[in-house]
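hey so i finaly got around to running the thing on HNH endonuclease signature motif containing protein from Agromyces neolithicus. pasting the sequence first so u can double check i didnt mess up the copy paste, my clipboard has been acting weird all day
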Amino acid sequence: MASLHETFEQLRSQVAGVLSFDDATPLGDDDLLLAMGALEGLGRVVDGYRVVLAGEVAERSSLESGRERRLSVMKGCRSASELIERVTQASGAEARRRVSLGEATRARAPLTGEPLCAEFPRVAEALAAGELGVDAAGVIVHALSRARHVADPAKFDTAERGLVAQAVGADEAAPVRCSSDEVAVQARAWALFLDQDGPEPDDERAMRRRGLRLGQARDGLIPVQGALMPEVAAKLTRLFDAHLSPRSGDVFGAGDDLAEHAVPAETRTSGQQRHDVLAAIIDTAARSGEHPSIGGAAPTVLVSVRESDLVAGRGVGHADGVEVPVALRAVQHMICTGGTQRVVFDDRGRIIELGSPERCFTPHQRRAITLRDGGCLIPGCTVPAAWCEIHHVIPDVDGGPTHPDNGVLVCWFHHRTIDTSGWGIRMRHGVPEVRPPKWLDPSGTWRRPTTSPTRIADRIDRRERSRRRSSRPAGRSDPPERRTG
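ok and heres what it spat out for the 3d tokens, dont ask me to read them lol
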């Protein structure tokens, strides 16, 4: 009689002889999907028995097994999952998942007394029959494990039966198999129903585990790691949604004779867009004056750069608190936004000259520019004025003053890329004008954009007066305007 090991080897050889990597090519669409479903059913049978064997290995490796030496220790491994890893070449996460499922679905045989039923008997039955996949089984076990110890047994059995039925397509509300993600939604709802006090321990544990940290610099970037509380993540998500949702409308808001233009296509990935929104949030918070000061001033990043490098347009800067060098383009961007202070050293390193901070727009100037521009000046950008930076249209090195006639609102991303994106900005009689890149508007026409509500209202009034004049019979004129105030 062949051993179980020999039987499995024979089955593997037979299946390998039936299947070929080239067999799927000639299949029609329906045959392809039917074959995939049938193979998945075969895989569920195999996966179910994988779980059984993993559970047995875990039992023989436990301290409570009653064995003189644990199986994992006998084979030179620290745990049952490590032993399974070495035998199967599965990942550590997969080995631990099999152990967890195996322990939850195997009937226990204590040293004394009657044998105990499996913790999840309905999941065990469905796994043994090859009806339930390990993904869905893991979802059910994970979601209901905590509630199992506090829930009414009858209600718990109802929840387990219902979830298994939905996963295998045997429930009236789920005539077809539910995916693991769909089962997860239902499982979380059942868990809350079974354990009304469940979220509180989760909240306390989450409060202890919450955190945010900056990693080591790598490839010119600083990785961010951590975990947010759900309500904090919800607020941040809403901020992202508000400023990353597609918008449309009158982009330029210019004179009466200008045609409407389409919003330029977004070239950033969603991750890059969220980064830029977060950058704007941080800048806004630093400017708000509502945060603790450092050295009597608002939180300010100090970036040092040699004057010779700045003049030559090469080299790097160095920001305090960050090890990775800052590109010169970023330095110039920060100078344009936050100003400069000239510090001169002698050959020995002594400070011999300390200039005053320069090129910083005052709060009064910022308010005036905000009323004029409304928000980021680049058409199609939805970043509001409070999140924008002020860009010197004519740089200081070229004689540009720090004056509203030379400052415009742009968001962090468009300010950072203003020299490479193809967008042109100029001032004409104190009014900003924008020229789109050639790929967007080959004509190279300068236009006056704004999202300022008052300026848009004025523009509408001008258009309406122009329309009335053009439609009035010859010889008639508008009545004189009445002004109040």
